[in-house]
Design brief:
Keywords: Membrane, Transmembrane, Transmembrane helix. This protein has a domain at about 30-59. The chain is about 70% helix and about 0% strand. The protein contains two helices and no strands. The protein has helices at about 5-15, 30-59.
Length: about 60
């Protein structure tokens, strides 16, 4: 199985089920909100860490 197929399987098996109609809108609970906050915090923190780990290589 190639890497593209594995990433597609990951997307369809784990990410898409979490984006369903019951997790959006009026019925959403704090677990989904916490998952969103963790995702956003990771997205903000990742470039900072990458810069910190690789800045000595660019100099």
């Amino acid at each position: 199985m190639c890497l593209m197929e594995k990433s597609t399987d990951l997307w369809t098996n784990s990410i898409l089920p979490s984006i369903s109609s019951d997790s959006m809108g009026m019925g959403s609970n704090s677990k989904h909100q916490l998952r969103l906050y963790i995702t956003v915090a990771t997205a903000v923190f990742q470039p900072i860490i990458i810069y910190w780990l690789t800045s000595h290589l660019v100099r």
